[in-house]
Amino acid sequence: MNIELTVGMDPDSVYFLLTDPQSGPFQSLKNYKNPRLMENKSRKILFENGPRQITRVEKSVVCKVFGVYIPISMHLIFDENRKDLMTQYKKERVIFMKEFKGNYKVEPIFVDKERLCKKKTPMTREEYKKCSGGKGKIASKLTIDQFYKPYPPFNLPPLSWLIRGLTIKTSKSLLALLQDAATLFRTAELNSPPSEDSE
Predict the structure, then answer these.
(1) Taking every annotated instance into account, which residue ranges of this chain make up the domain DUF220 (predicted)?
(2) CA–CA distance, 129 with 10 (Å, rounded to integer)
(3) Of 13, 103, 120, 159, which one has the fewest beta carbons inside 10 Å?
């Protein structure tokens, strides 16, 4: 599964929402019967060195199967690089899954580069800030690559079709909530009163 998604928020904030266990944008306000689509059950840091951190995480993801919400427990190892805004992950134990691994990366999108940086195409955030005079807006491109292989007999049709459909549908629902969280943050920033420093 490969997903590319544009999020209207700066890359550091997007990466924070994805990796911080307390940030929690993955809660649907529309679903009152079982509102939390993903929950962090436990988290243990195994290794930390500068921007790199390896953690063992237990998550619970809710899937809707024939109208019934079923929590799926996932035990994963995350290898986070907070400098490059990139994370690799693999399973320790995921129900039905023989293999489950992937990675995601957040990259900047220089929204106003054509309008404000006419003479030069910025390659870094520093160059963009310089050529735009600090006025350029930054969004994010989130790329996710995920590979999974169910245990038999779930790797055979029609069960494999069901697993694939549930995985894609759940992933899309979680990413829609990430975009909703970004919209809320942007709205809050626009409606917040100016600080004393800006007056």
Answers:
(1) 71-141
(2) 13
(3) 120
Of 181, 187, 184, 169, the closest CA to residue 27 belongs to: 181
As beta bridge partners, residue 62 has: 71
How far is the CA of 90 from the CAs of 71, 75, 135, in angstroms?
Answer: 19, 9, 39
Q: List the beta strands (DSSP E) in 67-165.
A: 68-81, 86-94, 97-110, 138-150
Of 63, 57, 89, nearest to 75 by C-alpha is 57
pLDDT at 169: 87
Could you tell me if residue 176 is inside a domain?
yes
193 part of a folded domain: no
In the structure encoding, which two tokens stand for residue 7, read together? Answer: 């999020």
pLDDT tens column, 16-34: 888 887 665 565 545 545 4
- Look at the chain and report how many structural domains it folds into: 1
CA distances from 67 to 17, 34, 62, 63, 70 (A): 29, 12, 12, 10, 10
| Structural tokens at position 47 | 């290794």
Sign of CA dihedral 19, 111, 186, 35: negative
Does a structural domain hold residue 195? no
Our measurement of the distance from residue 173's CA atom to the centroid of its chain's CA atoms, rounded to an integer in Å, reads 11
Q: What is the largest CA-CA distance in the chain?
A: 65
CATH of residue 132's domain is 3.30.530.20
